[in-house]
Specification:
The chain is α+β, with helices and mostly antiparallel strands and 184 residues long. The protein contains three helices and ten strands, in the order βββββαββββαβα. A four-stranded antiparallel β-sheet has the order 3-4-5-6, sandwiched between helices. The model has no long low-confidence stretch (mean pLDDT 85).
């Protein structure tokens, strides 16, 4: 085993995690479960993993007995859910909206030199994806997990200009009229 891998031991499995991605922890929470003898404490971590050079990003959430175990499990989950983001000249190709639960976000392309004009969670996800010029607005809920999921949903719905279609000449498929006349 080389120095670029970590081994995460769980009760059930062992994970080998390669460290070729940038990893940032968004949130760590202490969660409790009430059992017969009292309370049992665990930790939940939300982690974003990305590679700015290849424009790949993913998020993961996991629970563990301690903080390091939760972060490593969340990192492993995030690496399994990587998506590719189309980036053109440091920005996204078009405006995109997404909604997850109560969190709504709007991400818009920006000119060169604008920077990331975004909130905390959205900024971390976009930085990990290698996007450098973007404007965004988060509406509705400020739940960090839902904002991260909405950002990933928005980024996964982006298309490149080569895949755009115009509706100038194409008016869509022709619809056949159905007649529901009763036979007498």
């Amino acid at each position: 085993m080389d120095q670029n891998t970590d081994i995460v031991a769980s009760k059930k499995t062992t994970f080998n995690i390669e460290k070729k991605f940038n990893e940032q922890t968004i949130q760590i929470d202490r969660v409790t479960r009430v059992v017969k003898g009292g309370r049992r404490f665990r930790f939940r971590a939300l982690v974003v993993v990305g590679d700015p050079k290849t424009h790949q990003v993913g998020i993961g959430a996991a629970k563990g007995a301690d903080v390091t175990a939760a972060v490593k499990k969340a990192s492993y989950v995030a690496q399994k859910k990587l998506i590719s983001v189309p980036v053109i000249n440091g920005t996204i190709p078009h405006e995109v909206k997404a909604k997850v639960s109560g969190a709504k976000i709007l991400i818009m392309p920006a000119g060169k030199g604008t920077g990331l004009i975004t909130g905390g969670v959205i900024r971390l996800v976009l930085e990990s994806a290698g996007v450098s010029n973007v404007l965004s607005k988060s509406l509705g809920s400020s739940n960090k997990i839902n904002l991260a999921l909405a950002t990933i949903k928005a980024l996964s719905s982006l298309t490149t200009p080569e895949n755009w279609t115009t509706n100038l000449n194409n008016k869509g498929p022709k619809k056949e009229l159905k007649t529901n006349k009763k036979a007498k």
